[in-house]
Amino acid sequence: MNNVRNTTLLVTALGFCAAGCSGKGSMKWGDTTPKAEKAAPPKVEKAPPPAPRVAKPKRPRRARMNAQVKRVEIDDKVMFATGKAELLPESHALLDDVAEVLQENPDAKEIEVAGHTDATGSADLNRKLSNERAEAVRVYLISKGVSAERLKAKGYGPDQPIGDNANDEGKEKNRRVEFKVTGAVPDPAGAVPAGAAPIAPVKK
Fold first, then answer.
1. Is residue 149 within 8 Å of 107, Cβ to Cβ?
2. CATH homologous superfamily for 63-181?
3. Residue 117: closest CA among 75, 61, 178
4. Helix 123-143, helix 92-104: angle, nearest 10
5. Residues 29, 53: Cα–Cα separation, whole Å
6. Structure confidence by residue, pLDDT tens digits, 50-73
7. What is the rounded CA–CA span in Å between residue 14 and residue 104?
8. Ranges of each domain in the chain
9. Distance of CA 98 to the CA centre of its chain
10. Band (151; pLDDT cuts 50, 70, 90)
């Protein structure tokens, strides 16, 4: 009897072991592997607020109307490619200032864009070059909104020097572009007062 009971218990135990070890039963003996924990979602950091926009300082204007001498004065030189009537990009901002001054002074009815050279080389070629450079400036000002009717270009070549052509410093002074008010005297305050009659053209 005892042998039969022991045999029955052994078979039962083996049955449980087979079910647990095969993975088909619901009971798993000796499986101590912990269940995987659910991963926490990654933390999303908030983007920092955008930096406040800082306004760029306004570039100082390098041109102004001088009613006393009837000219638009400039603080720099209009630059061209050597021996050509091609405006260099670094002069665009300067000519933009000239255009603004002319638009703010509509009473200056006529402006002569005068080109000048030094005395190096042929005088006739220099007159031609200075006239082409003055015309290039005129075209640029028209592209910036100045009326074509107000502008005329003239090249003087080496005929009106302001420096000594015997040295480099004098030659540098002579190579220049000037803006002369020829058709009217601009109002000294920079604009015609409200209700005022237009200023009569200057007799030549």
1. no
2. OmpA-like domain (3.30.1330.60)
3. 178
4. 70
5. 69
6. 877 766 667 789 999 999 999 999
7. 108
8. 63-181
9. 18
10. very high
